[in-house]
Amino acid sequence: MNKQTDIEALIKLLEDPDENIYFQIRKELIDLGPSVIPELENRWEEESSLGLLFQSRVEDLIHDIQFNSVKKEIREWRDSDDHDLLRGMHLIAKYQYPDLSFESLDRAVESIKKEIWIELNSRLTAFENVRIMNHVLFNVHNFQGNTSNYHAPQNSFLNNVLDTCKGNPISLSIIYILIGQRLGLPIYGVNLPRHFVVAYVDPVFQSDHPTEENVLFYINPFSKGSVFGIDELKDFVQQINLPDHSQFFNPCDSITIVNRVLNNLINSYNKLGYPEKVEELKILQNTLIG
């Protein structure tokens, strides 16, 4: 028998009521990976007459294969050299939207970047660069905080935020970072407790590991790109009764940002009462920081 015939035979056995046979077949199909998903989907449609047991098993199997694939890709991204932020966010979105392509996110970000790039020139100051970015993002595209449904999971999936132009502090900041850095602007994320903002760094330190001493000013994308200084940031930390810690003011890396997004999703699904999703997202988080 060829491989295709083998796969078809394994899928047919999914209807076997014997749990031992089912778990053996399930393991073999999971080991084959995402390549078997199209055939599983075809059989799910063709064999619906087999009843709910077969359909349920196929649905669970497809989900588990997709989940394992995302987990594997997150591990590979973690171990990569560049930690491209858009790719990291694509992997998080794939957890909920397995068929989402990286290219669709890339095109959306690039399209907005081009609109801003047309307005920029080398003579502009840092504040002028930010003013143009803010105009295109918050006036032309009307990106805004989703204040009416702040804790909704869709605020953490970048494809939803790009489609609806609504998000939470970190997802709006991520769009700001992605577009800013594509424009060659020294914009970085800042992992502020209970919020998330971005920093505009002195260009001299753009390619190194900037700290709060290298930050020219901070930007709050959740508040339409309002600009503020270190003193206001420290006042906020003091108001929420946290120690004045440098990690709250320093630019952070992409792994920290993606981990914060996973935290948000875990909290969102926990509030909505989806314990299975909470456990799966914790597995992805452990894979990321493991």
TrEMBL record:
InterPro entries assigned: SirB1_N (IPR032698)
One of the Pfam families matching this protein, by short name: Transglut_core2
Taxonomic superkingdom: Bacteria
Domain annotation Protein SirB1 N-terminal: ranges: 107-263
Family designation: Belongs to the UPF0162 family.
UniProt protein name: Protein SirB1 N-terminal domain-containing protein
Organism (species): Salibacter halophilus
Taxonomy of the source species: Bacteria, Pseudomonadati, Bacteroidota, Flavobacteriia, Flavobacteriales
